[in-house]
Structure formats: C-alpha cells, structure tokens
C-alpha cells in the first residue's frame, strides 16, 4: 500500500507506487530506438510483459500510429490507473498530483485520453477528463507536462 495523507487543508492525497525498474528500462531502450516501428515494437512488448503498467500504456498512447490507437491505449491506461488508485487507498476523491513522479503515468493517460477525445469530437469525454484532471490536481496543467 502507498501513502494516503489526510490534510487539514483539503482532501486526502494518493501517491502511487513506482513502476517496475525492468519496465522503465525497456521504455528507456524504446526511446533510443532507431525507427518509429522499432520503438513501437519495444513498447508493445514491454506492455505485454507488464500489462498493469501505467507508464507502458501512457507511452503506447504517446507513440500511437494514429489517433484511435492512441485513444485506445490511453483509455486502457486510464482504467488500469483507476484500478491502481483504488488498490492504493483512493476512494473516488482526493488528490493525485503531478508533483509525485509515480502519479505521472496515470495523469499522462488521463490527459492523453482528453486530447484524443477532443480530436475525435467526443466533447463530453473531453470535458469530463479536463474536469477530472483539475479535481485530481488543482494546479493542472503542470508546466512540465511533457517531461
């Protein structure tokens, strides 16, 4: 279990556990790939080996070959992320802030889902995701979102 802090200044905050080192190593290797196809293949294999990894799904969404592939990857990552949040004490409300490195993969999936929903004209989903991001982290969007 990960820490959940009760704060006098607001709702509880959930911090997710770090991703497996082996997965992070595979994603780093993918980033150095010589071709987009090689990078895609490495990420797909990493996600297949670690299907609960939010970093893997976020990366797969980032490198999707088209908007629907990205949308699907981000959506899976978002739902896996909700499961992971609940397993770590989140009860449907409270902060999941970007400032915690281990929360970033989930927030990347949610932000990617929002962008893809907007791109395909799914306005209600775009708006829901945007609101959810601000509820999870009132300072959304972070200045270092691309990091």
What does this structure look like?
The protein has 147 residues and is mainly alpha-helical. 58% of the residues lie in helices and 6% in strands. It has a single domain (19-136), classed as Serine Threonine Protein Phosphatase 5, Tetratricopeptide repeat. The protein has 6 helices and 2 strands. The protein has a two-stranded antiparallel ribbon with strand order 1-2. α2 runs antiparallel to α3. The longest helix has 21 residues, at 67-87. The two termini are 26 Å apart.
Give a concise summary.
The chain is mainly alpha-helical. The protein has a single domain (19-136), classed as Serine Threonine Protein Phosphatase 5, Tetratricopeptide repeat (Alpha Horseshoe), CATH 1.25.40.
Write the layout of secondary structure elements.
Elements: E1 4-7, E2 10-14, H1 21-31, H2 36-49, H3 54-62, H4 67-87, H5 104-119, H6 123-136
Antiparallel strand pairs: 1-2
The CA-CA distance between the termini, in Å, is 26 Å
Number of domains: 1
Helix share, percent: 55-70%
Number of DSSP-assigned strands: 2
The radius of gyration is 15 Å
Strand order of the largest sheet: 1-2
CATH fold-level topology: Serine Threonine Protein Phosphatase 5, Tetratricopeptide repeat
**Corresponding CATH architecture:** Alpha Horseshoe
Order of helices and strands: EEHHHHHH
Helix tally equals 6
Shape: globular
CATH C-level: Mainly Alpha
The major pleated sheet works out as: 2 strands, antiparallel
Task: Report the average pLDDT across residues.
Answer: 93
Unreliable runs: 1-5
Secondary-structure content class: mainly alpha
Beta content: 5-15%
């Amino acid at each position: 279990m990960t820490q959940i802090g009760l704060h006098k200044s607001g709702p509880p905050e959930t911090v997710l556990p770090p991703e497996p080192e082996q997965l992070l190593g595979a994603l780093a290797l993918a980033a150095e790939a010589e071709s987009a196809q090689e990078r895609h293949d490495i990420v797909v294999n990493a996600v297949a080996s670690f299907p609960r990894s939010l970093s893997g799904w976020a990366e797969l969404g980032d490198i999707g070959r088209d908007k629907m592939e990205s949308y699907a990857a981000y959506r899976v990552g978002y739902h896996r992320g909700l499961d992971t949040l609940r397993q770590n004490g989140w009860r449907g409300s409270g902060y999941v802030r970007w400032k915690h490195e281990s929360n970033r993969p989930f927030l990347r999936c949610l932000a990617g889902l929002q962008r893809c929903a907007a791109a395909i004209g799914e306005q209600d989903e775009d708006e829901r995701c945007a609101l959810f991001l601000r509820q999870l982290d009132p300072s959304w969007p972070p200045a270092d979102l691309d990091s």
